[in-house]
Amino acid sequence: ARPLRRTIQREIEDNLSEKILYGELTAGQIVIVGTEGTGETAKFTFRGAIPQDGTPPTAPARAAH
User: How many Å apart are CA 5 and CA 13, to the nearest integer?
Assistant: First the structure.
């Protein structure tokens, strides 16, 4: 489980954090995560979208550990 956690952190959390810090994603947006490429060259893509009804999304409930 730890290698998977590290991969998720490196490939998704780190990139997503950078996009937020650099203003590419802003408050109130829904983040859509996709992929480009296949196999070893595949990478995640991130796109911000405003909810269709214009209301900000609510935070999901946190899972209990």
Answer: 10
Residue 44 dihedral angles phi and psi, to the nearest 5°: -85, 145
Rounded to whole angstroms, what are the CA distances from 1 to 5, 6, 25? 6, 9, 29
CA torsion sign for 21, 24, 28, 31 is negative
> What is the tens place of the pLDDT at every residue in 7-50?
889 989 999 999 999 999 988 888 999 999 998 898 999 999 88
Measured between alpha carbons, how far is 12 from 27 in angstroms, rounded to an integer?
18
Look at the pTM and tell me if it is higher than 0.70: no
Are the C-beta atoms of 25 and 3 separated by less than 8 Å?
Answer: no
**Residue 64 identity:** A
